[in-house]
Amino acid sequence: MINKQNIRLIFGLKLKQLRQQKGLSFADLSKASGLSVSYLNEIEKGKKYPKEDKIHQIADALEVSFAELTSQELSRNLEPVDQLLKSNFLNELPLDLFGIELSKVVEIIASAPVRVGAFISTLLELSRSHALKEENFYFGALRSYLELNSNYFPEIEKAAEQFCREHSIPAIRPIPVETLQRLLEMQYKYRIVENGLDQYPELQGLRSVFIPKRRELLLNSRLNPMQKAFQFGKEIAFQELDIKERAFTSSLLRANQFEEVLNHARATYFSVALHIPLELFVEDIRSFFRRDKWDGQVFLSIMRKYLANPEMYYHRLTNVLPEFFGLKELFFLRFTHDLKTGQFDIDRELHLSRRHHPHSTALLEHYCRRWKGLKMLEELHKDDAGQIKVGVQRSRYIGTEDEYLCLTIARPSYPDPHKNVSVTLGLLVTEALREKVGFLDDPDIPFRMVNNTCERCSLTDCAERAAPPTVADRRQQIKAMQKRLQEL
User: Is 286 inside a domain boundary?
Assistant: First the structure.
């Protein structure tokens, strides 16, 4: 079924096409129909749909029937537009977040429907070939939105501060988990079920599930106080930010619409801001950056001060470093290490200012084992104690001048006992970084040449190589062929 917005867009496209076929300007059509130029312009842009009497006036002016003008069928040359609108693909994209009007996109497509339609069809075909689903687009759009805003949202910061004031939460952190539980129970009428997921073996990978009809929050019994406090913070966020469209699981298993993905990110941001107050944290990081020697234990002590886990800690770093330190060129990566299969995957990433060299790939290639995040996961796997690890490295990407200061924390995954995870924050080495970070040139910080994947790396003496350089070798073969062809 075609929605109202698409009906307006289709009508506008038909009106524009018929007007141009008749060789009429807006002024000509305005004179013939008795409708204003601005009103006709709004109709063509898909912003307004005229009433029946006005449609008759337009139809008479264009010398077409009422039925022809109101039909939802577009002409043959606009078939690509028709297919796109009926597929609802464009409506699933959160264009409004980026200040883009759907009517503008349709207008661009309509101006060269065959070529643009073919291009979009190609993108859709590629997405099908790589088994990309709607949520892939949603999460990609979310990352772009966060990057566009430098992952800093003042309105959520203010909401978290206001919540603390209204409920007399002291500035000292961490917030006792009992305080947040009491607020959920008394203020929002939640019922907290401590071991609520224990009877559901298939749900043991989740931290919590919210049952809205009973207002019950079922918790995984293996959660530590830190994880419990973070989940309580997210539930408070859903209430305080008046979020209606939300997932009821702690992590998104399947995104039904983009609003769910965005709102999950907003609730996460609120909880992080609640547990790690902005002003205190900025001062802690400023003090740490003044040090002339890297000290991993001091770096970890800041995280522990707020009873935060590494993901919360790094989330807050990506909030404050661009906004308060002017360090806008950075990336964040989270690696998972499946202890059963030995496979390494990137399941979260963020790039600010531009897409940086280390990034995820869906090509089943082997990530560079020289990355600090992977190296530390390998070390963590060998360490029977399974303790949290912290490390630092300066990494330069082969074939470029780009060098990053990489801060990494690796830890066992909870509640999943069969995985370890590492989080890495990479800061591009620039003059701004030199001014802000006193320990940048600490000689004890190791330096490594790195690449994105083994398949794309041309290094011949790499002891950590996990796969042959198939892509790099193929590139060299093509270059040799091109050189020989030029000589011939």
Answer: no
Count of domains for the chain: 3
Per-residue pLDDT, 427: 96
Residues 347, 415 within the same domain: yes
SS3 452: coil
Residue 142 counted as domain residue: no
Global pTM?
0.78
- In this structure, the answer to whether residues 115 and 186 fall within a common structural domain is no
The half-sphere exposure of 302 on its side-chain side, counting CA atoms within 13 A, is 24
Domain that holds residue 43: 4-132
What does the alpha-carbon distance between residue 315 and residue 317 come to, in Å, rounded to a whole number?
5
Our CA dihedral for 334, 371, 430, 359, rounded to 10 degrees, sits at -50
Instruction: Tell me, yes or no, whether 158 and 201 share the same domain.
Output: yes
Q: Which residue, among 219, 171, 220, 163, has the nearest Cα to 187 in the 3D structure?
A: 163
Burial of 397 (0-12, 13-18, 19+ CB in 10 A): middle
329 domain-assigned: yes
Q: Please give the C-alpha separations between residue 467 and each of 291, 365, 425, in angstroms, as whole numbers.
A: 39, 8, 25
DSSP 453: B
Taking residue 443's Cβ as centre, other Cβ atoms within 10 Å add up to 7
- Mean pLDDT on 396-414: 91
Per-residue confidence (pLDDT) for residue 73, from 0 to 100: 77
Count how many Cα atoms sit within 13 Å of the Cα of residue 136 in the half-sphere of its side chain. Answer: 11
Those residues whose C-beta lies under 8 Å from the C-beta of residue 341, and which sit 6 or more positions away, are none
| Structural domain includes residue 384 | yes
Q: What is the mean pLDDT of residues 467-480?
A: 89
Cross-strand pairs, 409? 390, 423
CATH of the domain at 85: 1.10.260.40
